[in-house]
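Why predict the complex rather than its parts? Because the way molecules touch one another can change local conformation, and only a joint prediction can capture that. The input here totals 898 residues.
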Amino acid sequence: MAPCALCPADNPARAILRRPKTLQPVCKQCFFDVFETEIHNTIMGFGQAEGSSADGKGKRKELFRRGEKVAIGASGGKDSTVLAHIMTLLNDRYDYGLDLCLLSIDEGISGYRDASLDTVKRNAVQYDLPLKILSYHELYGGWTMDRVVGEIGKKGNCTYCGVFRRQALDRGAHLLTVDHVVTGHNADDVAETVLMNVLRGDIARLERCTAITTGGDLPPELDDPEDTKTLEGLLPRTIKRSKPFKYTYEKEIVMYAYFKKLDYHSTECIYSPTAYRGHARALVKDLESIRPSAIVDIIYSGEAMASSIKLLGRRAGGDPGPTNEKKGYTRAPRNSQQKCTRCNSLSSQPLCQACMLLESLNKGVAKVELGAEPSKEKLVGEANGSGAMEKLAV
Amino acid sequence: MSCGQPAPDETQELPAAVAPAATCVRCSLPPGIVVRTTSYCWEHFHDHFTFAYRKGIDGARTRSRSGRPQDVLNGAKRGTKRSKVMLAFSGGASSRVLLDLLQKNSFTRPDDPSLSNPRFKPPPTFESLEILYVDESGVPGFGPDRTEEVRALVAETPFPFRSIKLESIFTPSTTTFSTSYSTPSLLTSTSTSTPLDPLTSLLSFLSPSTHSPTSLASLHSSLLHSLLRREALSSGCEILLTGETANRVAIQTIAGMAEGRGFSMGEEVGCEWEASEEEGGGLLVARPLSSILLKEVTYYARIRELESLTMRRPETGVEPKKAGIEALVQDFVNGLEANFPSTVSTIIRTAQKLGMRSADERERKVEGIRCPLCGLPAQLGAEDWRKAITISTLSDLKSAAPSSSSTPSLPAPAAAADLPSPEAALAPLLCYSCLLIMQGTLPPPRGAPTPDEEEKVVVLPPYVEEMARRRRRIAEEEEGVVGRRTVSGVEGVRREVEGYLLDE
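Output of the joint prediction:
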């Protein structure tokens, strides 16, 4: 009988599991305590390496503000079920003062989402949270993921699903008038994405994928709603999204759900990607088996590398970087935000990506190159001729 | 979509390898080598390779001509004296090729018949070059001393050769500086009794019974690079050259990320960086081959008939998946590169876009923080961050029950179970990666008697003590900072106002 490594040494309880993150033998209660406290630390901003400056005097930034209305992105899977449980628990225990609700997106994948949505409905009752379900069918003119896959095949379908879901979450958030959406992305997901972005040379995306909060349209150092001195505080913002499980291991989430006997749906998406992400996923698993902290270490590295992009002076490759000739910092120009001409959502281009993809589906053009900028005249002309999406715009 | 942003097609496989051309890309000769889908004959490969080398050595060349930043400010060196260079020579193909390239391109003029003015003979790029070989035979598993084999490899070159043992990093030492792994804050102590001999200290520091293979490789690398920098500075060299190829850099990038070295990644894998002021300053560490593939280096060595030693890795007797992070990543990157030849170049292009903390500090004219163990930029508060995200003790949490008041109170993560005197703790000074190594020692083998604290005490190299002392001194000075002015005691105040004082 291994004693719990976290209990008081004079009277330890019997350990019933080995914590995946540290390999310490722990008892059930200590596991719950440590799991919940680490997430609380993340929410309170203690665990944001990205917020720390080199001299360690960086401003600690809490994830939420008191009184915020927060939607929990719920799919019915283990991550979002545990997230709904933990957010309810911590909001109550530490009195965050958050107004919580559940927001679920029905992608229209028969045999997968319909079953998991039943779980979400049960969770809404269990945690006494209001639930809003939005479906691709109603948002995108009848295009469910089953229909999308029927049109374009399995390969590349996640691009459509991801872009549509992002917009659907934004629309749902507007409908519910929430300020913030939290999702159940866990540490394994983030570490995979960090590695994948380095393997494919996408340093700009490395910066975005390591941020604990995206959206809000302002860089973290300027994102202070009480700052009314700058004009930026008055600009419109997209809904903020956060990942409270950013440093939480997938295995621990499963264990927590198991020991807490939470009601979740455990089927993988039937259109789940395997090929590209699979390389990074396999490496992360192998690294974790050698050193359990490797997942958190990769995230720490990803954050530090992302923050190094903004440093002054020479780049690692020898190229000259920004200098300090002018006093103070010069911020890189941000993409000018504008309204999508079709659905009114914020976009960096005349037509948002969701509308571009929808256009390709409606036209029967199965493959659209992401990032390729279509000619403005063509897009505006097409946008003026179609009013279907404008009706759906929130 | 796991980052909240629309991702490109994640299901898409990497592009399949393109069949190479049947002739050289620049002439009709049959190709000798295919580099990143481009075929070259030997002659045109040589042009391509030399060009890549010149690009890689450009930072060191500029430094040699203009001098150290402080010399440039004084206007003392420009256009007159060149820098002395030290080449870290392992005897492997990469360092042998680098030595050949230096000899041909940076010390003697290449035989180029197309020169418009053959009488024009530019001075060598560098004043002199010293070859330094570090004998690592003291490290368990590294086999016998190969100094004489290495000396024979460079015998025909005109450069002086010097060999030094890795354990000499523990000299000179009049005291024994050690730390205890039994305390999470890594309490240190200095003993004035007779210091241990260097080899015993090395074996204590790199003990396989205390550290995992990953940690051992990392500690070994820290010792090696600290020794190289120290020797370069003590020899009066302003530039230290190492022979890492693009493949090595790509592996170091991924492995470094997995080991938590992201904060100093730019310095670890970049073309060149200014070594710490704490170590004496003014040393440029350059990697001229960091954009050149191992395959190109091997081909060049074969055609030029350059002899080299086969590098040995420590014998662990386990498969790469268990032999440590670097071995695993090497296996992974080599496997990907075999099928997709752009893997290594994509990784290094990503890494080379990173900024460097050392360059940023220089630009902003501030003094940076260095890890006493590896000498690379360190993030202050790494230990607190780790304690918040990976809780390994609940004693402080359980002693402070959660508050039900409207203002939640959380015990600060910095509040550790043990609160050592700050001047004795090493953990708060270390970078995140070194902290992981030093705090993550192996548990005693099952069934073995529990070791007392004495058995967990290891000897640290003297440079760690020196750098730790310097960090603490800076911290103490900063505590006396009020606004932008430093309170420097009565004598300091007197110096400031002495112009107004009258003779008594």
